[in-house]
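thought: fold this chain, then report.
action: predict
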Amino acid sequence: MRRPRQRGIIAKEGRHFLTRRRRAISGWAVAVLAVLLVSGPGSAAAETIRISGIGGAMETMRILGEAFRKTNPRIRIKLLPGMGSSGSVRAVLAGRLDIGLSGGTLSEEERAKGLVATKYARTPFVFGVNKSLKMTGLTMEGAAAIYAGNRDWEDGNRIRLVLRPPEDSDIPALKGMSPAMREAVDIALRREGMIVSTTDQDAADAIETVPGAFGGTTLSLVLSEKRNIRVLSLGGVTPSVRTMDERAYPYSKTFSMVSKINPPPSVRRFIDFVRSPAGAAILAKYGQSAVRKEGIPP
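observation:
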C-alpha cells in the first residue's frame, strides 16, 4: 500500500503545475533518485542496465526487471528518475541510459545516430476521474465538451480538467481520438488557470486527489501503480487489453525500448526477456498487450 503524499500547485506562466512530495517507499521508480533491484553475492562485478522514460511504463518495467533477475542474478536493473520519452531518448544518445522507455517515435536524425526503437507493448489510453465524480462512462462528444470547456459540471460537482504540456506524448494521443477532440484539446491548451501536470505520475496524482478531476492516462499506469482512479468506459466500451486487441476500444499508446542499435549482450538479453512469453504474461497482468515487431532483430 502506498503511503499518503503531500502535493501542491505551483503557478507558472498563468498555469498551475502539479508537484508532489517524492515517495520514500514506492514501487514506482520515477519518484525516487534511483531504485536498484538488489543483487546477490558478488554484485560488485554485476552488470547494470540503466532504464528510464515514460511514466506509464516505469512500474511494469520494475516488475519485469525483478522477474528477469530471477534467472539473471548478475545483471542489475537500475531505474533512474523519470525523464519522459524525449528525455530518455536524449539520455540514451548521451550514454547515460542503456534503455529509454518511449511513447513516441524516433526521428530520422535519431535513427541516423544509431538508435533503434523496439516496440514491446500497447496499452489502452483512457479517461480517468476522481471518485468524487459519479460518472462511470461518457461518449467522445462528451469528452470533447469537457476539453473545450462546454461541460464544467457533473451532478453538482465541478469538473477539473487535468492537462499535459503541449509537447507531451499524451497530446497527440488525445488529438488523434476524433476531429472534435483535436479542436477541443487546442482550446484546452489555450485556457487559463488549468491544471497542467508535467509527468504521468503528476497527472495521476491530480486525478486521485483533486475533487472533480478528469484527465487522460493509461490503463498500464492505473493497474501497475494500483491507482485510486475510476477508469471510464467510452462509447459504452470498457477499456481493457481484450477490447483493445479486438479493436472494440481503438484508443491506445505504444511503448518502445530505445537503445543503441548494437547494445551490450546484457541489454539485448533483457530486451529479449521483455518480449518473451514470460514478459508478455506480466504485461497482460498490468493492462498491456505484447508487441513483437520492429526494433532489434530477434
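thought: worth noting. The two ends are 38 Å apart (CA to CA).
final: C-alpha cells above.
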